[in-house]
Amino acid sequence: MNTTPEREILFKGKRKDTGEWVEGGIFKKPDGRIFIICDIWNNDEVCDYCEYIVESYEVAPESVGQYVGLEDKNGKKIFEKDIFNNGDPKILYVVEWIDCGLRGRQIKNKSYIGFWHWHDNIEIIGNLTDNPELMK
Fold this sequence. Notes:
With 136 residues, this protein is mainly β. The chain has 1 helix and 11 strands; from the N terminus they run E-E-E-E-E-E-E-E-E-E-H-E.
């Protein structure tokens, strides 16, 4: 019997054509372009025989982040490269994957927090792509 919990493998990226964020699977073409593959539910009767349509969107490589499997205190999914606070809005962290796991790196003094212990207090306030000014 397998007791390992399933985790959702999910990525987000910012579309190159519209600047909108999309979530889904990830695919890298041989030419280096990166695409997010999304399931879109069929609500417009384009397809009589299927429940959803799969579409893909080219995304900016620097915007791509992986879902960490947790949500912030407001129920928002937490992705790599998100910027958050831990109850004190003056102290900001960025979500990072490192060789040994997940961490929050404090922006100002470069210290770290154990992410799993604090995730119930975390509030996502932005990300590195849309909010580079928060890194200052």
